[in-house]
Amino acid sequence: VTGELGQLALCFALALSLVMAVSGLKGTRPQDLTARKIASGAAMGLFVFVALAFGALTYAFVTSDFSIIDVANNSHTLKPLIYKISGVWANHEGSMLLWVLVLSIYAALVAGLQRGGERLTSGALGVQGLLAAAFILFIIFTSNPFLRLDPAPFEGAGLNPLLQDPGLAMHPPMLYAGYVGLSASFSYAAAALLVGEAGWTRAARPFMLIAWIALTCGIALGSWWAYYELGWGGFWFWDPVENASLMPWLIATALLHSALATEKSGAFRTWTLLLAIAGFSMSLIGTFLVRSGVLSSVHAFASDPTRGFFIMVLIALAIGGALALFAWRAPTLQGGAAFDVQSRETMLLLNNVFLVAACACVFVGTLYPLVLDAINGTKISVGPPYFALTFAPIFFALLLLVPLGPQLNWKRGDLKAAWRSLYPALGLAGIAALTVLALVSPRSVAATGAFAVAGWLIGASILDIRKRKCARASAFAAALAHAGLGISLMGVAGTTLWRSEALTVLAPGQTMTVGPYTLRFDGVTRERGPNYIADRGHIAVMNGGRVSTTMLPEHRFYPAEGADMNDTAIHTTGFRDLYLALGDDRGGGRFALRAYVSPLAPLIWLGGLVMALGGFLSLWGRLRVKETEPVTPAPAAALAAE
Amino acid sequence: MKTVIALLLMMVPALAAPVADTFSNPATEARARNLQRQLRCLVCQGESIDESGSPFADDVRHLVRQQIAAGQSDRQIEDFLVARYGDFILMKPPLQPDTWLLWLAPFVVLAAGGTVAWFTVKKAARRSACKITSL
Question: Does B89 touch chain A (CB under 8 A)?
Answer without folding.
Answer: yes
